[in-house]
Amino acid sequence: MNYRNNIAESFGDRVRQLRREKGLSQESFADKCGLDRTYISGIERGKRNISLRNIEVIAKALQISISKLMKGF
What we know:
Blueprint: H1 7-21, H2 26-33, H3 37-44, H4 52-62, H5 66-69
Helix pairs in contact: 2-3
């Protein structure tokens, strides 16, 4: 993973990587999370300061643990 100075950008890169590995579009992933597609887009671009609750939602939608989602941080 290419780390940037901004943790939000690094986290967004991680979410995008894992989403793509699952073969999910942003739209289908957003539906699976119960979140808006523009919110997912903002996360992946590092433009959102995501809450702990939504980190849990994303991990569940990816069917991984929070620790695996956060691996490398």
